[in-house]
Amino acid sequence: FFFASKHKMASFRRQDILSLCHLRNDGRKQNEIRRISINMNPISSGSVSGACLFQMGLTRVLACVCGPMECARRSDERSDRANLSVTVKSSPFSSTNRQTKSQSNKQLLEIANDIQNAFSAAILLHLYPRAAIYVNVHILADDGGILECAINATSLALINAGVSLKDLVCACSSGLLSDGTMTLVDVNKQEAFDSNVYKMSVATMPQRGSVILTKLSSRFSLKELERVLDSATTGCRAVCDIMAQIIREHHALLVAARMGNVNVSCNALTEAAGENGEHENEVDGMVLS
Amino acid sequence: TVCPGDRLGRARHFKSGPGTHVKGGLVFSSLVGIISMEKDPQPTIRVDRSSNHNAVLSVGQAVLCRILRISTQQAVVEIVAFDAALSEPAVTEGGTRLPQFRPIAAFASATLPNGVIRKEDIRSGASEDVEVYSSFLPGDIVHAKILSLGDSRRYFLTTCEPELGVIRAICSSSGKHMVPLSWKEMQCPETKAKELRKCAKPVTISP
User: Which are the contacts of A6, defined by CB distance < 8 A and separation ≥ 6?
Assistant: First the structure.
């Protein structure tokens, strides 16, 4: 029995990180990301410039971008670049315990700060002097990986809003098992809370190959860093492939609609809901290394 | 269709147009859009997006504003719309270009940018005889131009040209929209009462 000999913690219980056949608690392999579902047009009102509803597994995040527009307070204006302002809010029903006082606190503020730092590196801010770009992120469901999901959602929302970016920004997390045997890509909530998993979040600009954000709250040795970073970057690449495909399909639909050509062919992977003009894409995200 | 970060070409061969940026000798796309190339004066690559308007006000831009309050020295306004005709091809008729106004994006009326039209900027010429009360009243919609970015609280606007001035005003007695009679008078079609305003010269549309 090959599973029993390899891992002491291998068993049939759902709580275990790796069980039979090295499958994780949600049935994924160690290098698979969760199923991604993107809605490029969640908000139909004209008050937001761009929005995106991004879903990784059970985690759902909505990002809305207003801008580039006049600063709400002229004292916030910067003469040579845009002012990027990020707010992250969480719905009371997002987590397992209902929280009406949205953990306004530190975790969300920290996420907002991380997003702001990451996108200050990715947006060409100097193209919009004296303007303000407001990003509002709402966490609708939290199953782990809200920072990564928020970054991915913001990236697509900015693209929808027409803000100039250096590159797509994709984020993914990677967890290292405490016995150092393997890394898990795209860590969910149950795995993140397990004390045997050290989680690191990474955001990259895939086509440029540069890492713009890494976040680690535990400790492991420097030798492991390369492995974890590698696996997270591979996860980012997988997310990027899906995002790029969705972007092109969405754009093709827009162009077709503008030219009056309403017949859009559907292939097996995408479904277009025509009534409200909404377009939801579900693409399976699987990485096989 | 290109995504941000897509490589478009070498910087040696192409100049980077709007929607692209250059890094390390290569031209990359910054937007999601359609690539196009212009041949003259230099081969330039650009990425075009359907709607690309920059909603930050600049000096010399024509705007629509609503008068909030007046004093003896100035009229305080909130800027409601800006002229987007410069960034998009406008309808030109008889040499005059029709302004296309687009509303300013703002979260609430309270956050609309404020402006001020000083007494000396209402009319060109001598400003001693100008009365703010005879030029604008609160509630009027005025076509003005941005004179200066001003300070942290407001822009400075001007209505010195003949095409600038009150576009829409409501008669104080009947509540109906008034019709301009001359550059300094408006008349209510119902009560026939005349009120003093600095009116904008109507744009003639040739058939």
Answer: none
